[in-house]
Amino acid sequence: MTKKEQDLEIVLKKFINKIVKLIEDINKPNEKLFMSHENFNHETFFQRLDNAVSLISSNATKFSITAKPPCNPKDVIEICRMFDPSVENLVNIIESVPLSHGANFNREIRDISKDLLRSVATLLNGHMKNPINLNSINSFQGPLVDTGITWYNCNVLMKISKNNLESCSKKIKITLDFIGDSINEIKEASENPNNDYDDFDDDLDSDNEDKDDDNSKRELTENEKSLLENSLNMFKMSNFLLKKILTRTMKQYVNDNSIEANKWLDDVAELAGKTFSEATDDLACSSMSYPLDAESISEECNNLLEKASNLIDVCIKVSDETNTKWYNTCRDQFKKYIAAIDSCKTE
């Protein structure tokens, strides 16, 4: 390498290492950098964020054009000097968001920001003679000579949730999507109850599909029909519950950004998120394993009831009399379906 190329290599390496350090900082929120809850203004924050992201997008484009071989190392170094502070400015803005404005809101901002920083690091790395190993920041390896992924991440960051209510709503909507998929899969599996429902096995056996004799497909037993019906009812009730929370109970916090409101929203998102979707997934697996086993389905239904009850209890705390009655009725319906499933155990 020439002396100028060596100088560029040093600048790029220093810039990349700085980004790696910034990602580590984002992973460890520092309360000393937070704005106070009262002084944090969403409108001002998003104005600053949009300006910072636009500048990064512009600098990434300039870098990509300037660094395209054959390049003038001096010009690339000059672009890096402009690029560097724009990245640091973004992180300073992200670090200012207090956790009191919602754990989910904060996590969404930080996760997407890290994606953007990773893409910038990879863009820079792709123009080094001796690329750095970026495994420590979970970045993909190899050259990235265009700004496509960086542009994409800039666009995603500019479209993040505007508050914790939106962030928490997204988590619940993901669970609703899982429930919808599970209902469709269970119905599909019930149409061919000869064997355990397994997509992978189905793919392996796809060459033999034309050998199947439709007349050989067995009918569901009356016991299985009852198990199937009530399992689906558990999913439908879960769907009703989550939609009720989204469209009614959570909506009362549209204009409430208090610490208490954000804490409640985070609690609901936690209960209605991963653990709830995992419970529905476990029930779906039991409801697609033929011949259907009442013991197994009952166990998973009770697990789902436990998750639903925890969610209902949190919602009742902020509900009026009418909605409290609805939530208790919802819980009773879950129990009714489980009782119907339990009655199949002795049949």
TrEMBL record:
Gene3D superfamilies: I/LWEQ domain (1.20.1410.10), Talin, central domain (1.20.1420.10). GO terms for cellular component: nucleus. Coiled coil: none annotated. It comes from the Eukaryota. Residues 214-223 have a biased composition (Basic and acidic residues). InterPro entries: GCIP-like (IPR026907), GCIP-like_N (IPR049317). Residues 196-213 have a biased composition (Acidic residues). Residues 49-191 form the Cyclin-D1-binding protein 1-like N-terminal domain. Residues 189-223 are annotated as: Disordered. This is Cyclin-D1-binding protein 1-like N-terminal domain-containing protein. It comes from Anaeromyces robustus.
